[in-house]
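Q: What residues go here?
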C-alpha cells in the first residue's frame, strides 16, 4: 500500500467582496517506494473537464495500484476557475497557461504558477497535463506533444503518446515563456498533454479513456504494470496532426452564426466548403461560405454558433504517421 499525503497549498485571491480571500489547490502525493516522480495535472483551464474527472478517479484508485515511484495528482490546478466553470481565473482574469513568468508573482494566477515552479516541477521527471477544448472548442480526443522553443527531440515522447492509447496525436509549437510547456522545459520535465473533448459538457466514456491514458503513461514510465484496461496504440495506428502551421486554423473574419457542415474526424479537401456564417436577424445579409484552409482531418471545431471576428472556428491538418514526429524538430 502506497504512502498517501495531502500537499494542498493555498494562494491569495482577493476580490472586491473578500479582501483576504485564499483559494486552496488540492494536491495528493502518492509514494510507492523508489522510482520516478510524475505529476498528473488537469484544470489549468477551469472549464476543461475530462482530465479533471479522470484525475479525481485516480485520487481514489491510484493508492491501491501504484507499484513504484511517486505520483502527484492535481485534479483542478486552477481551483478557482474549476469552481466557477471558466477557462480563466475569475479573480484576476489570468490564464494559468501564460502565468509562468517567475517571481515576483502578481496576483492569484501567477502565484499558482510560481508555487508549481517552486514546489512541484523540481520534484518530478515527467508530467501529463490534460487539456480539452473547454467551453468554446471541441477536439477530436488526442494526445498532444508540444515543442517549446528549441527543445530537442525526445524519443520518449512518441512512446508516451502511444501509451496514452488514443489513435490521434496533435503537435503544437510553443514560444511563450509563460506557458506550462516553457516551465516544464526549463525544469527538464518530460511533458505530454492531451486535448480531450470540450464544449460545456463531458462524459464518463471520455473521462474513462483519459484515466486509462494516464495509467498507460504511468506504466510506460515504469510506475506500474500495464493495466488491462490500457491499450497502447501501435505506431501505425497513431495519426499525427501538425496544428502549428497557419493553414491549420480557420478563424471568423466577421460576426455571424457559425453553421458547420463537417464533423470532427471528417476528411476534407482544400477549399472544400465546411460551413457558413449567417445572420438571421438581418435577412438581407447573404450567407458567407467558409472554406477549409487546407486538406486534412477536422481535429477541432467550435461548438458555439454565435461567433465573432477572430474566433477559431475549425482546425484541420493532414494525418501524418507518428514516426514523422522527429521531422518536426
Ligand atoms: Zn486548456
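A:
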Amino acid at each position: 500500500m502506497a504512502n498517501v499525503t495531502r500537499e494542498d497549498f493555498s494562494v491569495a485571491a482577493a476580490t472586491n467582496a473578500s479582501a483576504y480571500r485564499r483559494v486552496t489547490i488540492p494536491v495528493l502525493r502518492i509514494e510507492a517506494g523508489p522510482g520516478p516522480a510524475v505529476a498528473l495535472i488537469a484544470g489549468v483551464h477551469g472549464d476543461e473537464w475530462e482530465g479533471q474527472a479522470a484525475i479525481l478517479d485516480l485520487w481514489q484508485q491510484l493508492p491501491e495500484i501504484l507499484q513504484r515511484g511517486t505520483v502527484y495528482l492535481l485534479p483542478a490546478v486552477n481551483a478557482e476557475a474549476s469552481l466557477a466553470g471558466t477557462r480563466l481565473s475569475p479573480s484576476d482574469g489570468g490564464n494559468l497557461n501564460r502565468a509562468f513568468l517567475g517571481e515576483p508573482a502578481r496576483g492569484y494566477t501567477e502565484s499558482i504558477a510560481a508555487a508549481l515552479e517552486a514546489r512541484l516541477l523540481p520534484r518530478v521527471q515527467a508530467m501529463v497535463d490534460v487539456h480539452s477544448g473547454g467551453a468554446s472548442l471541441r477536439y477530436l480526443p488526442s494526445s498532444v506533444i508540444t515543442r517549446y522553443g528549441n527543445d530537442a527531440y525526445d524519443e520518449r515522447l512518441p512512446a508516451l503518446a502511444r501509451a496514452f492509447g488514443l489513435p490521434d496525436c496533435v503537435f503544437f509549437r510553443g514560444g511563450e515563456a509563460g506557458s506550462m510547456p516553457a516551465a516544464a522545459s526549463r525544469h527538464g520535465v518530460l511533458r505530454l498533454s492531451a486535448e480531450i473533448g470540450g464544449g460545456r459538457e463531458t462524459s464518463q466514456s471520455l473521462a474513462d479513456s483519459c484515466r486509462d491514458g494516464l495509467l498507460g503513461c504511468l506504466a510506460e514510465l515504469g510506475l506500474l504494470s500495464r493495466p488491462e484496461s490500457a491499450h497502447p496504440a501501435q505506431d501505425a495506428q497513431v495519426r499525427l496532426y501538425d496544428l502549428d502551421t497557419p493553414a491549420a486554423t480557420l478563424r471568423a473574419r466577421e460576426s455571424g452564426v457559425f453553421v458547420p457542415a463537417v464533423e470532427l474526424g471528417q476528411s476534407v479537401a482544400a477549399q472544400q466548403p465546411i460551413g457558413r456564417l449567417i445572420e438571421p436577424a438581418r435577412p438581407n445579409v447573404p450567407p458567407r461560405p467558409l472554406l477549409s484552409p487546407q486538406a486534412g482531418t477536422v481535429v477541432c471545431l467550435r461548438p458555439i454558433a454565435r461567433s465573432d471576428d477572430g474566433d477559431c472556428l475549425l482546425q484541420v491538418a493532414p494525418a501524418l504517421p507518428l514516426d514523422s514526429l522527429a521531422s518536426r524538430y
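A: Context that may help when evaluating the design: The mean pLDDT is 95. The chain has six helices and 20 strands.
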